[in-house]
Amino acid sequence: VEAVHLIADGKAPRIPQPKEGATYEGIQKKENAEVVWDHPAAALHNWIRGHDKVPGAWTTINGQVVTFYGSSLLDASVPAGQELTIKGASRPGLVTKNGLVIFGNDGKMVLVRNLQFEDGKMIPASKYFSADETTALELTEEEKKMAEDIR
Predict the structure, then answer these.
(1) Has residue 16 been placed in a domain?
(2) Angle, CA 77 vertex, CA 76 and CA 79 arms, to 5°
(3) Number of domains comprising the chain
(4) What is the pLDDT along the chain (151 residues), one digit of tens a residue?
(5) For the Formyl transferase C-terminal domain, which residue ranges apply (predicted)?
(6) Do the domain assignments include residue 22?
(7) Sign of torsion, CA 133 136 137 142?
(8) What CATH number does residue 97 fall under?
(9) Domain enclosing residue 75, as ranges
């Protein structure tokens, strides 16, 4: 009530806002979006979500910069999956059928659905270990003959 009366009487103090820190542009730089692993799961989720899509929260996996997209908090038992060592994380992530499970310093989990590599290629996080696999096309004898006829 006192503040309202000061404003109404024209006697409220006026403190100019400093120019330093008056913009959010600095946080939009890729180098400022690296995931800091010494936080609880909720903070990791908010960091990833807050940088989703631009510039993208990132970390280093197997010497390569990988950007996380599409996170959600996971409130369940630890799912089965293949371990993935993440630089700076106190605990390996788990590549599961639903995505990459990462752990906060409180032991709680975050599920990341998509990963983007330095070359721009984006994959579902659940396909991390199968991303580099390519299968050779094997033709039957009939298909080989047809291929020769076409040539």
Answers:
(1) no
(2) 105
(3) 1
(4) 999 999 999 999 888 878 777 666 555 778 888 999 999 999 999 999 988 888 889 999 988 999 999 999 999 898 999 999 999 998 999 999 999 999 999 999 999 999 999 888 999 999 998 855 545 567 788 888 888 888 8
(5) 29-130
(6) no
(7) negative
(8) 3.10.25.10
(9) 30-133
